[in-house]
From TrEMBL:
Enzyme Commission (EC) number: 2.3.1.225
Protein's name in the database: Palmitoyltransferase
Lineage, uppermost ranks: Eukaryota, Metazoa, Chordata, Craniata, Vertebrata
GO biological process entries: protein targeting to membrane
Keywords: Acyltransferase, Cell membrane, Endoplasmic reticulum, Golgi apparatus, Lipoprotein, Membrane, Palmitate, Signal, Transferase, Transmembrane, Transmembrane helix
Signal peptide extent: 1-18
Matches recorded under PROSITE patterns: DHHC
């Protein structure tokens, strides 16, 4: 048996498990995660033990301890995109007389994004301590389904306030816990959720702006060159009118780095856009990712045990207060609102 394809398949599965773990950090796995782990266990029967051991140590280091690997990767990818944008796209667009403010927009968004990134990464997410435990216990009521009264955190040795969770990576209990984000190397909780939302929004708009400017440049090049009205001769000597596939190939051969960057930022825009919309949905409905995931798991586990007439009333989000109040709670946590009322 050829060992190389098997090794590549094993590494792909490891990467898939890693990505799934990142997506569901702090909230357990899922069907896809269990399927990937099962496939990995089957392959472990033929994969050398030393490789399995190294893989487990690397994954343990990456996803079970706080580290700056993904922060460095995030900054490196951002630097690579902006280096290409500055070195080629900006210069070419300036020569084609694009509006200066449009060309500077990605840099303005970068400044805002880095500010949100620093705040999200360095801000206190809502660490529950003995000094603030009593006040945080009164912030939210227990819903009796996802959050039960009297549950004590075995690590922190304190009763868990409603909507809180212990993060095993940071080894702290977090108020209104959402998830642990490896890209900012910090938990997302009550006090930095607004920074995370703005960070995600600016990152999405930033990728979209670079994609739009780069695409506009390539379209301008095509229009100025009049290549769409031309023709080409294939390997058999037959003449054909220029098609989209030929045009993309021509652009890739002419501007390889720019076309590659465009493909990357378009993919990034789609992924970030979808994730941004999902986070907006969570904000509008006053849910955290942890609560959304737990409620889905709860509904699934109780679906078969209930009568058909009761299945719609399995779980009700008691924390939703209307769109405006839900958004207000993201940008002004309840503890801050309470302090202002007392003043």
């Amino acid at each position: 048996m050829d060992f190389l394809p098997l090794l590549l398949l094993y590494l792909c599965l490891v990467l898939a498990v890693a990505v799934l773990y990142c997506s569901h950090a702090g909230s357990g796995g899922g069907r896809l995660g269990r399927a990937a782990r099962t496939a990995g266990q089957l392959l472990s029967l033929v994969i050398p033990t030393w490789l399995q051991s190294v893989t487990q140590k690397v994954l343990l280091r990456l996803f079970h301890t706080r580290n700056y690997l993904f922060v460095v990767l995030h900054i490196a990818l951002q630097a690579a995109v902006y280096a290409e944008y500055t070195w080629e796209v900006f210069v070419y667009c300036w020569e084609l007389e694009f509006h200066l403010l449009l060309l500077l927009l990605p840099y303005l968004l970068l400044a805002g994004n880095m500010g949100c990134f620093m705040l999200c990464s360095c801000a206190n997410p809502g660490v529950i301590t003995k000094s603030n435990h009593a006040s945080l216990m009164k912030t939210y009521a227990y819903d009796g389904v996802l959050f039960q009264k009297g549950v004590v955190c075995a690590t922190c040795n304190m009763e868990k306030p409603a909507r809180s969770k212990h993060c095993s990576l940071c080894d702290i209990c977090v108020h209104r816990f959402d998830h642990h984000c490896v890209w900012v190397n910090n938990c997302i909780g009550a006090f930095n959720a607004k920074y995370f939302f703005l960070y995600l929004l600016t990152l999405t708009v930033m990728a979209a702006s670079i994609a739009i400017i780069t695409a506009a440049f390539l379209i301008q090049v095509v229009l100025l060159s009049n290549v769409m009205h031309g023709s080409y001769i294939d390997d058999q000597g037959q003449e054909h009118a220029v098609e989209i596939l030929f045009l993309i190939q021509h652009l890739f051969l002419t501007f390889p780095r720019i076309v590659f960057m465009l493909g990357f930022v378009i993919l990034l825009t789609l992924i970030l856009g979808a994730y941004c919309c999902f986070n907006l949905y969570l904000a509008l409905t006053n849910q955290t990712f942890n609560e959304w995931y737990k409620s889905r798991r709860y509904r699934h586990s109780h679906h078969l045990t209930l009568q058909p007439c009761d299945r719609q009333a399995v779980y009700k989000n008691v924390y939703a207060k209307g769109v405006w109040m839900n958004l207000k709670e993201i940008f002004k946590s309840p503890t801050v609102l309470e302090r202002k009322k007392k003043k």
